[in-house]
Each structure stands twice: as C-alpha cells, then as structure tokens.
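Input/output pair, single chain:
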Amino acid sequence: MSQDNSFKESTSKRHLFIGLLTLVAMPLLPMVMGWYTYAS
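Output:
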C-alpha cells in the first residue's frame, strides 16, 4: 500500500512538472514559430 502511495506521489509530481513546463512554453511557442517563419 505504501509503495502504491509513493508511486502515485512521484507520478503527480511528474505531471505537475510537465504542467508547469507547458504553462511556461505555450506563450513562447508562437514567438518561436514566428522566428522560423521570419528565418525562412
């Protein structure tokens, strides 16, 4: 039971990290796409 609990904890931490990374990266995505469009 404790192994399942620690596994769920590590999974939620991983999802939290991915969620924060997505929140930071999403506003930058159109700017990066604009750089590629401007470069080509």
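DSSP finds one helix and no strands in the chain. The CA atoms of residues 4 and 10 lie 10 Å apart.
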